[in-house]
């Protein structure tokens, strides 16, 4: 009985992942390429880890065995030109830069998170952790 329940639960999770992917394909142009998706999700992860407001460090972006540094630099420039990110020099180490999200990127992340939450709540009863 337990394996059947696990299988059904896994199938529902997979269904939500497929729905989210379809939504992302239609609404998340910044993540339409492999480099764009990597950068978008990496920025989202780094920004959520910060206690002193949303930001990410540029040096934390460049390690990816599947993408070239050139592709990532191009995509970072594209994010900057599209008004999604800005740069700020680090206070103590001028060699390192912080990436700051603009309101446009924060709005995109919020819409993405809300859509994912909506999809999950259609299939699962969710109780937030305290």
Layout of helices and strands, plus pairs?
Elements lengths: L1 H26 L6 H16 L6 E2 L11 H13 L3 E5 L7 E5 L1 H21 L7
Structural class computed from helices and strand pairing: mainly alpha
Main sheet makeup? 3 strands, antiparallel
Number of helices, where a helix is a run of at least 4 consecutive DSSP H or I residues = 4
Please bin the fraction of helical residues: 55-70%
Overall spatial form? elongated
Corresponding CATH superfamily: Winged helix-like DNA-binding domain superfamily/Winged helix DNA-binding domain
Explained architecture:
With 130 residues, the chain is mainly alpha-helical. It has a single domain (2-123), classed as Arc Repressor Mutant, subunit A (Orthogonal Bundle), CATH 1.10.10.10. 58% of the residues lie in helices and 9% in strands. It has helices at residues 2-27, 34-49, 69-81, 103-123; strands spanning 56-57, 85-89, 97-101. The chain has a three-stranded antiparallel beta sheet. β2 (85-89) and β3 form a beta hairpin.
Task: Give the tags.
58% helix; single chain; 130 residues; three-stranded antiparallel β-sheet; Arc Repressor Mutant, subunit A; 3 strands
Task: Please outline what is shown here.
This protein is mostly helical.
């Amino acid at each position: 009985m337990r394996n059947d329940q696990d299988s059904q639960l896994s199938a529902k999770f997979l269904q939500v992942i497929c729905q989210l992917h379809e939504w992302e394909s239609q609404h998340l142009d910044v993540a339409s390429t492999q480099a764009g998706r990597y950068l978008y999700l990496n920025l989202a992860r780094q920004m959520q880890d910060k206690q002193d407001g949303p930001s990410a460090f540029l040096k934390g972006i460049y390690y990816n065995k599947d993408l070239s540094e050139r592709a990532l630099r191009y995509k970072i420039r594209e994010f900057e030109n599209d008004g999604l990110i800005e740069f700020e020099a680090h206070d103590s180490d001028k060699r390192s830069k912080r990436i700051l999200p603009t309101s446009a990127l924060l709005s995109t992340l919020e819409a993405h998170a809300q859509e994912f939450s909506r999809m999950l709540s259609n299939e699962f009863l969710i109780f937030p952790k305290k």
